[in-house]
Amino acid sequence: MAIWVAILLGIIQGIFMFFPVSSTSHLALMQHFLIKRGVELPDPDSPEMILFDLVVHVGTLVSIAYVFRDSLTKYLTWTLSGFWEWKTGERTPKGELYRRLTFYGLFSVFVTGVIGFPMKAMFEGVFAQPLFMSGTLIITGIILYWTDVLPPRKIGLREIGIGIAIIIGIAQAMALMPGLSRSGMTIAFALFAGMQRRWAAEYSFFIAIPTILGATLLQAVEVFGYGGTISLGWGAMTTAFIVSAVVGIFALKVVIQLLYRANFRVFSYYVWFLAAVVAISSFAGVL
Question: Residue 49 gets which letter from DSSP?
């Protein structure tokens, strides 16, 4: 993979990981576009290219850690304190709260795995079908538009329960399909379940960390465990990783402001326009 291609794909991932318009679909569509123009790349649905996509997803986890560094530090501090209290038999309200939140977050990831892993091959097949992605992009736009017209949400951290954890886990599993945004689906379903906007965002982005790391590990095992090799070049993959992390910091800050102001509908118009472009390009043989 040429360095300029790695930079381009890293920029796309950094922006669209957090803009709730599906980074996987944008990566796959750009890869189709480049291949059609003679750029040497593996097919978007190949294990090697899917591993590349996951590597740049890991890059954007750095963005999450940076932007939410205060909240993450607080969460980790109180979580460790909470589990230490549990070990020693002590009980404090905050320790109890953060132990429960850790359980619910991990349970959401578990639900995602239970649903997503058996359907992994089907979801990956969508990478090779731009026209199908057009349909899933339309669905993403409808869901995002809906989030803006919701009345004020009431559920805070202390009211989060197992039901909400399951709902968000299901939403994240659905988002494994290209065209359905992971951040968009998880935030939207959290809002539909009644969570306040701030906590919907933080819950969504925090559970992205174990989810993406786990998916990357599984994909790496698939590529290397069966004698696979990386022809893309580690220099290109490292470049894409760094670019996605840096660009993602700025994109995430923009998204947080739009979410808190209930302005996600601007992304709806974008994905509907993109869906139309993809459909027309697919029929015309451009993609």
Answer: H
